[in-house]
Target: C2HC/C3H-type domain-containing protein
Amino acid sequence: MAKQQRELMARIQQQQRELDGMRKQREREEEQEKKEMERRRKREEERRRRMKEEEEQRLRDEAERRIREEEERERQQQNQYSHREDYSARNKPTRRFSPKSMYEDDMSSYKTQPTPPPPQTKPVRVQRKAVKPHPPPPQPPPPREQSPALPAPSNQDLSFFLAAANDPEAHASGRTNLVSCSNCGRKFASDRIQKHKAACGNVTKKRKVHDPSKMRVAGTDMENYYSSSKKQKPQPPPKKSNWRTKHESFIQTIRYAKKVSEMEKTGVSTSALPPPPPSDTSGLCTVPVVLTEVQSLHG
Model:
C-alpha cells in the first residue's frame, strides 16, 4: 500500500513538474513576444518621428529657398531699374541757357498745326450667298421580277427518291460498313480499324509499375530471391483518442493524493482509505519480446 502511494505521489510530482515547466515555457514565450512587440512599436515610433522631422526640415528648406529666390528677384529688378536711370541720365542732352531759346520754347505752343487729311473710306464689299440647287426628288425603285412558283411535288417524284434511298448499290461508295473497336467500342471504317486498334491498344494498356528495387538487383544473384509482388502489411487503423477518460483519471489521482497528504499531516493512518483509483492503461500495448523473456526466466 505504501509503495503504491509513493509511486502515485512520484507520478503526481512528475506530472506537476511537467505542467510547471510547460507553464514557465509559455510565460517565457509570452514575455519574449511582449518584448518583441515593444521593440517593434519603438522602432515604428522612431521611424515615424524621423519621417516627421525630415518632412518638417524639407518644408523649412523649401520656404527658405522661396524667400531667397524672391529676394534675389527683387534685387535684380532694383539693379535693372538703377542701371536704366543711370543710363538715361548719362544720355540726356544738355542745353545752354539763352533767352532766345526760352522765348522759342514759349512761342512754340502758339504755332498752328497743319490740319490732317480726311480719312479715306474703303468701299464695302457685299458678298452674296450662293443659292444651292434643290436635289431632284427620289425616283421609285423598279419593280422586282417575281420568280415562277415551284411546282408541287408529285407522288411519282417521291417514289423515285424512296427507291434511290433503298437501293443498296447507292451506298457502295459511302462508309456504311463501319467496324467497332474491341478496346474502346467506337466505330471506324474497315480500312482504318487496324491503325486505330494499334494506337488504342497503346493508350488503354496498363502502365508498368516502376520498381527501383527490382531494377537495382537485376543481373545479380539477388534477382532469384527478390519478388516484386510483395504484399504490404496492412497498417492498423488509428486508435480513437480517449482524452476525456485520461483527464478524469488524472483528476481522481490528484484528489486521492491530496487526501493522503492531508491525513499524513494530521497524523491519521491511511489504512482507512480505499485503494487508489485504477490508472487508465488503454493507450498501452504489450511487447511480445519482453513477455517471452519473462516467461523464459520464470520457467
Remarks:
- Residues 2-91 form the longest helix (90 residues).
